[in-house]
Amino acid sequence: MSIYLNKDSKIIVQGMTGGMGSKHTALMLDAGAAIVGGVNARKAGTTAEIAGQELPVFGSVAEAMKETGANVSVLFVPPAFTKDACIEAIDAEIPLMVVITEGVPVQDTAEVWSYLQGKNTRMIGPNCPGIISPEESLAGITPHTIAGKGPIGLVSKSGTLTYQMMYELRDFGFTTAIGIGGDPIIGTTHIDALQAFEDDPETKAIVMIGEIGGDAEERAAAYIKDNITKPVVGYVAGFTAPEGKTMGHAGAIVSGSSGTAQAKKEALEAVGVKVGKTPSETAALMREIMQGL
Questions:
Q1: Per the annotation, does 217 bind a ligand?
Q2: 111/173 same-domain check
Q3: Candidates 24, 144, 190, 249; catalytic one
Q4: What is one GO cellular-component annotation here (predicted)?
Q5: Is 133 within the bounds of a domain?
Q6: Has 163 been labeled as part of a binding site?
Q7: Do 158 and 251 belong together in one domain?
Q8: 234 labelled as ligand-binding?
Q9: Are residues 33 and 152 part of one domain?
Q10: 3-state DSSP helix/strand/coil percent for the chain, to nearest 5?
Q11: Is residue 59 in some structural domain?
């Protein structure tokens, strides 16, 4: 089993004919993803040859879904056009929308998030590496060669830390690894992913990677206490970050004591989540748990 994405997922790429879109479409195909076409209104009716495959280009998400049965869209669209591309996908009722784009204006994301409420689409991102169910499918930019299939679920705010954790625990493998993005407003939260992993019978333990800023990790800690029965280990990036400075991700800013790595670590440890001081220490904590299962 996997969450949100599996071998039967049919993926379209909004922005497939652009530089980043075509490059990562080839890498997704290499990972075994079922890419069934792209969307570019200006190139509708043409095809694009990517990694030896002729992929059709459609004028809209709705048309692509109707013609191919697509149920996932991955967006490689410039920040200025991301809001419109998201709203188009939501209007077409695509079940899963993975927004890779970095630098989307927060107001645009807020409008998309608001528009999503009560709709049939799940958004992952923006500013994220997407989602991979190893040996099944990839919707995003996570290198598929890092780790294979196994019993660990991974949810992370950080792309590079997603990759490092997959590499550190490659001897065990993953059901799904999901990068939720580091912006202040995102579509899928730690809590959403934790519950999905809790409900997935093949996920035996969960790694949760957070970072400074906001209160998402504190809220996840409260949720874990009441709802999650599987073992969770955590890592919080940013123990050495100076106060009041945005660090890397747009959402990673500490004000006062709220949002610090230490505060998040304490909140998680208070509900029984073991938290590593480094990614490697976190992997070692998970290794102990897996050897005891």
A1: no
A2: no
A3: 249
A4: succinate-CoA ligase complex (ADP-forming)
A5: no
A6: yes
A7: yes
A8: no
A9: no
A10: 35, 25, 40
A11: yes
Residue 123 is assigned to a ligand binding site:
no
Half-sphere exposure of 187 (CA within 13 A, CB side): 31
Regarding whether 262 and 168 lie in a shared domain, the answer is yes
Same domain membership, residue 238 and residue 151: yes
**Domain membership flag for residue 221:** yes
Q: What is the CATH number of the domain that holds 118?
A: 3.40.50.720
Output the six-digit token pair for 282.
């976190």
Residue with tokens 């630098």: 103
Q: Which residue has the tokens 């997935």?
A: 200
The residue segments making up the domain with residue 48 are 10-124
Q: Is the pTM of this model over 0.90?
A: yes
Peptide bond between residue 201 and the one before it cis (omega within 30 degrees of 0): no
Please name every residue paired with 180 in a beta bridge, in sequence order, or none if there are none: none
Domain co-membership, 19 together with 150: no
184 lies in some domain: yes
How many beta carbons lie within 10 A of that of residue 244, not counting itself?
Answer: 9
Walk along the chain (293 residues) and give the pLDDT tens digit of each residue: 799 999 999 999 999 999 999 999 999 999 999 999 999 999 999 999 999 999 999 999 999 999 999 999 999 999 999 999 999 999 999 999 999 999 999 999 999 999 999 999 999 999 999 999 999 999 999 999 999 999 999 999 999 999 999 999 999 999 999 999 999 999 999 999 999 999 999 999 999 999 988 899 999 999 999 999 999 999 999 888 787 777 778 777 776 666 889 999 999 999 999 999 999 999 999 999 999 99
17 is in an annotated binding site: yes
> Is 249 an active-site residue?
yes
Q: Decide which of 124, 157, 174 is a domain's last residue.
A: 124
Residue 138, burial from CB neighbour count under 10 angstroms (0-12, 13-18, 19+):
buried
Dist. CA 146–CA 199, nearest whole Å: 25
* Structural domain count, the chain: 2
